[in-house]
Design brief:
homohexamer; about 140 residues; mainly alpha; AhpD-like; 2 domains; about 0% strand
């Protein structure tokens, strides 16, 4: 059940086909998930979104692929995005995240979630030492 | 301005002093930030919170210290915790996060925040291939 | 599956029946969705909630009905409310939102979600020019 | 106080200067706010972010400028982004949002926030009629 | 700094004056906080909001006043509402919440925040036993 | 469907068995829910999480068990944690929360969610009287 019907034959649209072909080449699989199939109702939005996801998540960069997926999972959990948590946890595992690394990721997300709530509850003032303009930070 | 007055002389309480001493030794600085100084109003809560933060964030583990701080920042941003974003961005930089790594972290947080909203708006059903019970995941 | 059993025969309660009748008349359909059927376990809470939803969303006002639904969707997406995203996207479409308008709504929600995260990560100070007390704003 | 020091002389970097010049031309003001000045620490991230914000928010489109800003405000409020709420409320007012329209926007955000919580608390199942694949929606 | 200028002389408007008088009588203080003073820019929105806050929070009910404030604080912390966290923590203390009760409240908010993240990360399916329609719940 | 396969025979691990046995004794039921069964993939994370949940939620304390569950529900709703909302609403009912108390809890969560959004939208400055360092609070 979704809020938008995916197009019946998305790849009949040349820009959608180009995006799906690029995705298949980069991810080395024929599978295109429901997010992209549904987003194809608007080829322009699909194309712009894929261009950005590809640039940030699929291109070689300073951070390794597993680290990038772990950061993505952390945001998706805090934002309670069911689909994203599923798809990016699967992606992290496919890229090599072990059970032990996943347990450590969960521990960090958990302690961050916890201390986020405590600091927000206490409304602690930000120490001047954290100011990037002046600080020898800690 | 905070919601709870920090104790005037927190280290007169032996359990608070023990926590602050441990923190100073591990972080190799005399500075104790406002979060811990305020939390000291309840020595038990302070002690339990520090024990967990220390265990997850300060002990050697599978993930390197900068990666751990980047994950912590990602959660704190999504939870809009002002103090935590400040303190953990400063911590990540103190542990060696470069401007280029920080820019990449921001790019991942941004694209995750964006696609989280899109997937939640579309209410895309989770593909069966993402199911950890059965999947050869992607 | 829900956390509260909906009453078996909600309209046997006169205040529930009055709310459902009003809803049917205003929405010009016999259908009453699961949210209202479940909320009927407490006729007072049902009545107060419907009164407010009706006043804000169903009465003629400055903003047109599709715009109002789009704003409602935007909040519901950011709050990750599955039921609300579904029911209000369907409502917006029933009131005339086109696929092209929906794609634009998604684009705005996406870029807002993205820049929200960036601004929160950077903890950018609010420029004085934005202060409503003094500003010729930009 | 921010987490990242803005560059001292951002416009000495040609790509930053190009973005700021484009922004000034489109917004018809010399003022560049702190968000963009801070993001300039990474010219690539600045450029990509501005390109998207410009495309979605500043180019003529189906939705009028005030409606677009109201949707942006709605997301920013739900995500608790202080800077974004300030800057986009000021922008909406600069583009013509009246006090009466703003009061209606607040009423919609408020009732959405409220019913979001109620529906999430009740975990109401989504009615089949809302399914975009099959529905004559309500 | 706020997004909306509070009216200069709010009580010159009879409906605003009536709300403020009612608030002063119920709260037994002359002080009217900035939230209400700012909301007075729209007397109708002010009146409707106060009516609801008064009905839920200030009238005698099943739950005692401190418990009600603690629940309000819990929601406000999770929603990262700075003003609300401040005003309702102060209110809870004024109504008798002790430091020990506050520490316990913080502990519950913290463990909930933590396990919320874990359960969302794991995407654990909801056990049938929790279904209110059928359950002998646990 | 979950992101992590629960171990096939979790209680073959002695630390998992010890946690499950402790849980059964304290909760006086043989049932162990899916959250704990899945978390058992990492016995250390399971043990630490249970120790904290037990300490905060299951041990006698200043707040009564139903109040504690109501606060837990409030946080879980605001964080949109489906599993947590289900499990803790069921727990609250099992511990004696009546329909009338639940309706009042929902009313408080709803009005908090609503005024959270209003205060965040208005970016109301925090009144000095709320400062815990100086205040005779209201």
């Amino acid at each position: 059940m979704s809020t938008q019907r995916p197009p019946q034959d998305p790849e009949s649209h040349p820009r959608v086909k180009a995006v799906f072909d690029d995705m298949r080449a980069i991810r080395q699989t024929d599978f295109v998930n429901s997010f992209w199939r549904t987003l194809a109702f608007d080829p322009d939005l699909l194309e712009r979104t894929w261009t950005e996801v590809k640039q940030v998540m699929a291109m070689p960069s300073l951070l390794d692929p597993v680290t990038k997926e772990m950061i993505f999972i952390a945001v998706s959990v805090a934002n309670a995005c069911t689909f994203c948590v599923h798809s990016h946890t699967a992606a992290a595992k496919a890229k090599g995240m072990t059970d032990a690394q996943y347990a450590e990721l969960l521990s960090i997300i958990a302690v961050a979630g916890k201390t986020n709530q405590l600091a927000t509850a206490l409304q602690v003032p930000v120490d001047a030492v954290f100011n990037a303009d002046t600080a020898a930070p800690r």
